[in-house]
Amino acid sequence: MNVPLLDTTRGQESLFDELSAVCDRVIRSGRYILGPEVEGLEQELSAYVGAQHGIGVSSGSDALLIALNAFDVGPGDEVVCPTFTFFATAAAISRLGAKPVFCDCDPDTLNARASDIEACLTPATKVILPVHMFGRCLDFAPIAELASAHALPVVEDAAQAVGTKGAAGSAGSLGSAACFSFYPTKNLAAFGDGGFVTTNDAEVDDKVRVLRALGMRQRYYHEVVGWNFRLDALQAALLRVKLRRLDEANATRRDNAARYGELFGAHDLDAVGLPSEDPGCTWHQYVVRIRDGRRDALREHLAAQGIGTEIYYPVPLHMQECFADLGYREGAFPHSEQASREVLALPIFPGLREEEIAAVVDAIAGFLA
């Protein structure tokens, strides 16, 4: 049985007519950049997240860049972020001329902890940039307490966490600002690129809006040097349709994760470390740990059987060639390095069939046995 890691068309067949009608509406409107569709998404998604303000931008990477810039991050500044995360988190820091300062992760949740972050703070720290990994909310209260004690803003990287909830509230409503991605693999996925910034601070909201439009508040009058980071109206309109079904889609992901847990539990595989249960997790990825050193061989075996998997992430950021000048060495962050050797993401998308989940688990059990 062929089981793809992700099928972007499954689970949204019932939306096709509505999505097509939205495309027609936008095409006929003549408003293709920003405009009422983007404004509608900004109001609806910020309300969904529980933030006072929301700003549509061109991608998740651009959301990180513009949010950090809104806090005046630049040369000479340091920004603390996890080493076990997607490259864009640290790339945004470097692109502003600042220095990414990496921290380790919790071996269970793979999220950065307040203690990991605190060990990295220096007088040059300008912003804390933690990540809600794989749809699991950060333990945010101690991070907020740490940030308050040092008078530092926290920018949440919530690219993988739309709809995610934790003890302190919803991802995207907890920090000084937050950044989302609508890349087609995300839980709330565009049909192209798109991103979003949320904040409860009116001043940050104003800065981001000016920065995304080439530094203009009034046309042709540039207050600051900004970027062309505007969101397309068509993507916003399509996302508004999908946002209304997001809770349903995330519930399906939770059901799929629970089924994996049941089936793996029946096999009692010591070599497979399962992600811990979390009712607020939206399961952007379902990531297991293969603890017997055969992760890569298992992945090849699954691929030969037509089962898609992915390794998020095979090399932690402190060991990437482009960050060699920062001076980190192997062994600096043992939990993150071990995770990079063990993690394997399995199919979890809405539309995944129960027999496909069973086929994945059986294939893994057969190989490890």
Give the key terms.
369 residues; alpha/beta; Aspartate Aminotransferase, domain 2; Aspartate Aminotransferase, domain 1; 2 domains; four-stranded mixed β-sheet; three-stranded parallel β-sheet; 14% strand
Strand content: 5-15%
Stretches where pLDDT is under 50 for at least 5 consecutive residues are none
- Which class of the largest domain in CATH terms? Alpha Beta
Helix and strand composition category? alpha/beta
Query: What integer value in Å does the Rg equal?
Result: 21 Å
| Termini Cα gap | 20 Å
Total domain count:
2
Describe this structure in words.
The chain has 369 residues and is an alpha/beta fold. The chain folds into two domains: 13-103 and 110-243, Aspartate Aminotransferase, domain 2 (3-Layer(aba) Sandwich), CATH 3.40.640; 246-368, Aspartate Aminotransferase, domain 1 (Alpha-Beta Complex), CATH 3.90.1150. It is 38% helix and 14% strand. The protein is built from twelve helices and 14 strands. It has a four-stranded mixed beta sheet, with helices on both faces. A hairpin with a 2-residue loop joins strand 6 and strand 7. It is globular.
Topology readout:
Blueprint (H helix, E strand, L loop, with lengths): L15 H14 L5 H15 L3 E5 L2 H11 L7 E5 L4 H9 L3 E5 L10 H5 L6 E4 L11 H10 L5 E3 L7 E2 L2 E2 L6 E5 L13 E5 L2 H11 L3 E3 L2 E2 L10 H11 L2 H22 L4 E2 L12 E5 L4 H10 L29 H9 E4 L7 H15 L1
Parallel strand pairs: 2-3, 2-4, 5-8
Antiparallel strand pairs: 1-9, 6-7, 8-9, 10-11, 12-13, 13-14
Helix pairs in contact: 1-8, 2-8, 3-4, 3-7, 9-12
